[in-house]
Design goal:
By secondary structure, this protein is an alpha/beta fold. The chain is built from 11 helices and 10 strands.
Length: 268
């Protein structure tokens, strides 16, 4: 499958008088792992939802190669949401269903209405789901009820579900915000593996600088809906952090000197 740039041009979204995203322009090459940082209310979550078209822009455009994403409607929009998988902080699983079935729901976009309602899946799709669970060390949990799993396990189930969409881009909105350090590392290692092994473009909103510096090729920092920084982790200097977070920013920067990857052993 041909890989294409994701390009945001003067992308904006206002809620009343509030500019949640304010004329953001970004060019994201295929296969990049991009961390998006910034204080609460900076516009990070809104920007991801704009890319996935869960929120409609009030200005600007989104292009993926020659496709004008902002113009998509109906079936074409549903296909874009399949190609641009979204992982949420809240996991978005059906807790009463088993893990395997939750993962298989990532295939529903490929099914007709009746098949979707009946949750009918082929043997090939079940094999895909088991393979995704194996990648995320979750095969022993396949027949357990999703609601019985730990938060970290549920987030990895959500990633497996996203993989079954066979996406080209993976968006993750604060995927580790509610997790302990060990589970946060497992989730970030999973996203890095998908980026590296599958060549997927990954955009992830993060609330800690050390995680962004440890895992991302590129860091984009937002404040008041605007891009304040766009560069490599090495370019994220104390002065830049101060501009992003204000006077408290240096404390965040000091935390980032020792990366998550350095503190926590990588998991196989």
């Amino acid at each position: 499958m041909e890989q294409q740039h994701l390009i945001l041009t003067d992308l904006s979204r206002s809620f009343g008088a509030t500019k949640a995203v304010d004329r953001v322009t970004l060019d994201i090459p295929p296969g990049q792992f991009v961390g998006i940082i910034g204080p609460s209310g900076a516009g990070k979550s809104t920007m991801l939802r704009l890319i996935n078209r869960l929120v409609e822009p009030t200005g600007g455009s989104i292009h993926h190669g020659a496709t004008d994403v902002t113009a998509l409607r109906g079936r074409a929009l549903r296909q874009w949401r399949r190609d641009c998988a979204m992982i949420f902080q809240q996991f978005n699983l059906i807790e009463r269903l088993d893990v395997l079935t939750n993962v298989l729901t990532g295939r529903l976009a490929e099914h007709g209405f009746l098949s979707s309602m009946a949750m009918r899946f082929s043997d090939a799709e079940r094999a895909m789901a088991i393979q995704a669970l194996e990648r995320l060390d979750l095969v022993p949990q396949a027949l357990k009820r999703a609601g019985a799993l730990s938060g970290g396990q549920q987030q990895r189930v959500a990633i497996a579900k996203a993989l079954l969409q066979r996406p080209r881009i993976m968006l993750a909105d604060e995927p580790i915000a509610s997790l302990d350090p060990g589970n946060a590392t497992r989730v970030m290692e999973a996203l890095r593996s998908i980026n590296r092994d599958d060549g997927l473009t990954v955009l992830v909103n993060l609330h800690t600088l050390d995680t962004a510096r440890a895992y991302c090729h590129r860091i984009v920092a937002m404040r008041f809906g605007r891009i304040m920084f766009d560069g490599t982790p090495a370019q994220l200097t104390p002065d830049v952090v101060r501009d992003i977070y204000g006077s408290e920013g240096l404390a965040h920067f000091d935390e980032g000197v020792t990366s998550t990857a350095a503190r926590v052993p990588a998991l196989a």
